[in-house]
C-alpha cells in the first residue's frame, strides 16, 4: 500500500514555495457540488456541454483556468453561482470579478461562451467587491488535498466567522496545482497563492496583520506575475510589510539566459499616493534550494524542481504622479 504523502515530504525537505503560482488571464469558477472525479469536469453533476467547453479551451491552451467550486450549502442551493475573474491590464492589483446567479449548471456553458466572445450575458452581472478564497480539497486528484485541504477548510470557515468578515467567501475547489503544498489556497480577486497553511498564517493573510515573515514560508506567489517576478515580489513584500498589499504593480522580464538560470526583471509599483517606483533585480538559479522530489502522491519518479533567488536588487527610479491624472 502506498503511504507516500507528497505534502509531508515537501515539508520534510523544506521546499521553498515561491514561484509556484500559475498565471492566467481568466479564472472561470463554476459552483458544482462534490464528489468530483479526478478530472473534475467529468463529474456527475457537470453537463456534457460544459465538459466539452472546458476540454476545448484546455486543448487550445488558452490562458483560462476552469475550476469547480462548492461550499457547505452548494448541494442545497436552488441556483448555480458562476464567477469569472478577468485580469486587469496595466498597473494592477489583480482581477475584476463578474458574478452570475444562474437557474442551474446547464446554463453555464452558454453564458461562458458568450462572455468570452464579447463580454456580454443574458443574466444580471454582479461586480460588487467580494474576497473569494479557494481551498483545494480535490482528493480524487491528489490525496493530500483531501487529507490537509478538508480539515483546513473546516477550521478556516470558523476563523472567518470569528473575525466577522462579511465580504469573505470560502470555497472548496478542484485542483489548481501545487498539491504538494496542501493545504493550498488562492485568494481572489488578487490571485495570490498560498500553501502549507495553518490557521495562524491564514488569520494573518485575512487581516494583513502579524509577522510578515510568516509569508516566507506560506506564500507561493502572485498569479498576475510570471514565476521569476514572483520571487522578486516576495522580497519586496518582506521589505515593505503589509502596506505592499495596497499597491498596484506591473512587471516584465527584460532578459533571460538560454538555460533559464538567470533572468533580468523589472517591477514597477504604484503607491496609494500615486508615486511610481521601479525595481530591477537579477533572479538566479539557487543551487542550494533546487531539489529532486516526487511532486505528487502518485508520482513514480522524481522531478528536478529549480528554485531561484534574488541578486542585485535595486530601486532604479521614483516618479511622483499628480493625483489628478
Overall pLDDT level: 90
- Tell me the number of helical segments per DSSP (H or I, 4 or more residues long): 7
Q: Assess the beta-strand content as a share of residues.
A: 25-35%
Number of domains: 2
Determine the N-to-C terminus distance. 64 Å
CATH H level, superfamily name of the largest domain = Glutaredoxin
The CATH architecture classification of the largest domain is: 3-Layer(aba) Sandwich
Topology, please?
Layout: H1 6-13, E1 26-31, H2 48-59, E2 64-70, E3 80-87, E4 95-102, H3 108-118, E5 131-136, H4 143-162, E6 168-173, E7 185-188, E8 192-194, H5 199-207, H6 215-218, E9 219-222, H7 227-240, E10 248-256, E11 262-270, E12 276-285, E13 291-293, E14 303-305, E15 308-319
Parallel strand pairs: 1-2, 5-6
Antiparallel strand pairs: 1-3, 2-6, 3-4, 5-7, 7-8, 8-9, 10-11, 11-12, 12-15, 13-14
Explain what the structure shows.
The chain has about 325 residues and is of the alpha+beta class. The protein has 7 helices and 15 strands. The protein has helices at about 5-15, 50-60, 110-120, 145-160, 200-205, 215-220, 225-240, and strands spanning about 25-30, 65-70, 80-85, 95-100, 130-135, 170-175, 185-190, 190-195, 220, 250-255, 260-270, 275-285, 290-295, 305, 310-320. Strands 4-3-1-2-6-5-7-8-9 form a 9-stranded mixed sheet. The mean pLDDT is about 90.
State the gist of this model:
The chain is an alpha+beta fold and 325 residues long.
Keywords summarizing the entry:
325 residues, 2 domains, Nuclear Transport Factor 2, Chain: A, globular, alpha+beta
Amino acid at each position: 500500500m502506498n503511504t507516500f504523502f507528497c505534502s509531508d515530504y515537501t515539508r520534510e525537505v523544506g521546499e521553498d514555495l515561491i514561484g509556484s503560482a500559475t498565471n492566467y488571464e481568466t479564472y472561470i469558477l463554476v459552483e458544482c457540488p462534490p464528489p468530483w472525479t479526478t478530472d473534475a469536469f467529468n463529474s456527475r453533476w457537470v453537463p456534457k456541454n460544459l465538459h466539452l467547453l472546458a476540454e476545448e479551451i484546455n486543448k487550445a491552451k488558452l490562458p483560462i483556468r476552469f475550476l469547480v467550486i462548492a461550499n457547505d450549502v452548494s448541494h442545497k442551493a436552488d441556483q448555480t453561482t458562476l464567477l469569472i475573474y478577468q485580469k486587469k491590464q496595466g498597473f494592477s492589483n489583480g482581477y475584476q470579478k463578474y458574478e452570475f446567479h444562474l437557474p442551474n449548471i446547464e446554463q453555464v456553458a452558454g453564458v461562458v461562451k458568450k462572455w468570452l466572445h464579447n463580454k456580454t450575458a443574458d443574466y444580471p452581472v454582479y461586480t460588487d467587491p467580494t474576497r473569494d478564497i479557494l481551498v483545494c480539497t480535490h482528493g480524487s486528484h491528489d490525496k493530500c488535498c483531501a487529507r490537509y485541504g478538508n480539515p483546513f477548510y473546516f477550521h478556516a470557515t470558523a476563523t472567518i466567522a470569528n473575525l466577522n468578515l462579511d465580504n469573505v467567501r470560502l470555497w472548496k475547489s478542484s485542483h489548481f496545482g501545487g498539491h504538494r503544498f496542501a493545504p493550498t489556497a488562492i485568494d481572489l480577486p488578487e490571485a495570490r497563492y498560498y500553501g502549507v497553511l495553518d490557521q495562524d498564517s491564514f488569520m494573518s493573510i485575512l487581516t494583513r496583520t502579524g509577522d510578515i515573515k510568516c509569508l516566507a514560508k506560506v506564500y507561493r506567489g502572485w498569479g498576475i506575475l510570471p514565476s521569476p517576478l514572483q520571487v522578486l515580489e516576495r522580497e519586496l513584500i518582506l521589505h515593505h510589510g503589509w502596506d505592499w498589499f495596497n499597491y498596484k504593480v506591473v512587471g516584465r522580464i527584460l532578459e533571460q539566459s538560454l538555460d533559464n538560470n538567470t533572468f533580468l526583471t523589472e517591477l514597477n509599483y504604484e503607491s496609494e499616493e500615486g508615486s511610481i517606483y521601479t525595481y530591477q533585480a537579477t533572479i538566479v538559479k539557487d543551487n542550494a534550494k533546487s531539489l529532486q522530489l516526487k511532486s505528487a502522491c502518485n508520482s513514480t519518479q522524481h522531478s528536478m524542481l529549480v528554485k531561484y533567488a534574488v541578486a542585485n536588487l535595486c530601486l532604479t527610479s521614483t516618479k511622483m504622479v499628480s493625483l489628478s491624472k
